[in-house]
Amino acid sequence: MYLVAGTSKLTCKGREAAAICRPQGSDAVVAHCWYRRKREATPGAERRRSTVKAEVPVTTTDERVLWVDAPSRKYPIIFRNKPSLHDSELFAPHISGNSVLIVTNETVAPLYLHRLREGLSRCPQVDRVEECILPDGEEYKTMDSLRAIIDVCMQKRLDRKSTLFALGGGVIGDLTGFAASVFLRGIPFIQVPTTLLAVVDSAVGGKTGINHPLGKNMIGSFYQPHAVIVDASTLKTLDPRQISAGIAEIIKYGLICDEEFFNWCERNVSKMVSLSPGAIQYAMERSCQCKAAVVAADERESSGYRAILNLGHTFGHAIEAATGYGTWLHGEAVAAGMVMAAEMSRRLGFIDEQVVRRIEAILTEAALPVRPPPSMNVETFLTYMAMDKKVERGVLRLVLLERLGKAIVTANYERQVLVDTIEYFRRLYQEQPENYERRLAHLRPK
Ligand SMILES: NC(=O)c1ccc[n+]([C@@H]2O[C@H](COP(=O)([O-])OP(=O)(O)OC[C@H]3O[C@@H](n4cnc5c(N)ncnc54)[C@H](O)[C@@H]3O)[C@@H](O)[C@H]2O)c1
User: Fold this and answer.
1) Which residues belong to the signal peptide in this entry (predicted)?
2) Are residues 47 and 88 in the same domain?
3) Minimal CA–CA distance to 192: which of 119, 293, 289, 280?
4) 284 located within any domain
């Protein structure tokens, strides 16, 4: 029942699911309930590992809790299936001071700010609910926005016990977490993710930060939230492109650490795209379990293990930067990047062609691009990839697939294989430009 830091055991079905939770004091009740509910909701859960055809494990309970047991902090991820932002009981246990600041953006504020404000105002210990509404977009993940948050903290005289709430997607989450980590040398913050990508990835694990004009996420900190609170009903207002971008990260978890989950994703991709409740709930929980286990094992990427979460990201970040942030969504660039990483893994003899085709097929079904932009050549890729945070002493470490369900981080490859991989996609475009462009369908105006 206890998660051992450093474990690489990522399968998490039935009885093993409890390994993610570390019962302790009152937490034990929640963790135990989660485990029991999961078993009740999914009869035969223990057998699922061998029952390859098992369909969507339907989750009917309204609230479920997973625990992230990072060395620096242990905190819950609370999933609610019904509208819950107005529910003070959900938030009160995680707030210690009497003032809170909600950070959000101009898109999310009209949709959800009033509900969260209502919920927080009704928490018995809370006297003041302040707000900071930032412009929307990756281009605002900057020092100026950080400064804007800190300005409100100062003007409203927040103190060490005040709590920041990040209400929004990954941009708001990363910015707010960074602000919380530096204001008064660190105050509590709570993630309330409202995009699928933020739920399954950015809200969990404590990477916070902002972009520098010369590189993405170059300034930041490792700083874990005090809780991640997911109101899954907020996902219903997302643009379909944003849902697909989140599914790219879900599929990533199957690829890097859980072949069975990848198989499940293949069977349920259309249900995920339509946000079918049972499927999306299971996908979110399974993804968070994978991320929690990796973060528990290597919170600050010191052993390098955590870097497996970056499958497709080195290629993807190059695509995002070269095309101008926002042209390709992060998840879209990661999808094309994962295909490139898979193709390179094939060239190195790790996986066979059929695995690459399966990866392309599932991403295509999720309406994601499976080719890099035709405008990018070897030189452009290598220039942007050289700025990756995984470059050490001039050598670029890449995340590759050793097999389906297992990623490795390695600098042990011939540079020519990387060049050949990029050139392969260029050639595909030159040979059949129309066919190639069909694989970039996400960029067509709808
Ligand atoms: N910290 C990490 O570990 C980590 C991991 C992955 C990605 N990231 C970062 O996350 C960011 C991407 O996150 P994202 O994909 O959530 O993008 P985002 O935060 O830009 O959100 C996407 C869009 O959806 C809008 N939106 C948010 N919630 C909505 C809702 N419920 N209904 C309607 N619209 C909504 C936003 O206003 C925005 O326009 C990038 O900056 C990336 O670097 C961080």
Assistant:
1) none
2) no
3) 119
4) no
**CA 10 to each of CA 186, 242, 300: distance values in angstroms, whole numbers, following the listed order:** 31, 27, 18
Q: Is the CB of 138 under 6 A from ligand 1?
A: yes
User: How much is the pLDDT for 352?
Assistant: 97
> What number does the ligand 1 atom closest to the CA of 208 have?
1
Segment 261-276 shows an average pLDDT of 98
Q: Which of 59, 83, 109 is the last residue of a domain?
A: 59
Q: To test the ligand 1 pocket, which listed residue (242, 295, 314, 338) has its Cβ within 8 A of the most ligand atoms?
A: 242
Q: Is the CB of 205 under 6 A from ligand 1?
A: yes
**pLDDT tens, residue by residue, 421-440:** 999 999 999 999 999 998 98
What pLDDT is recorded for position 444?
A: 55
> What residues contact 195, with CB distance under 8 A and at least 6 apart?
168, 169, 170, 235, 238, 242, 245, 246
Q: Are residues 36 and 90 in the same domain?
A: no
Total number of domains in the chain: 3
Residue 175 token pair:
């910015």
Structure-block tokens of residue 263: 């198989």
pTM of the full structure: 0.87
What spacing in Å lies between the alpha carbon of 215 and ligand 1's midpoint? 18
231's enclosing H/E stretch is strand 227-231
Residue 38 confidence (pLDDT) above 70: no
Measuring CA to CA, how many Å separate 363 from each of 47, 55, 102, 248?
28, 20, 35, 7
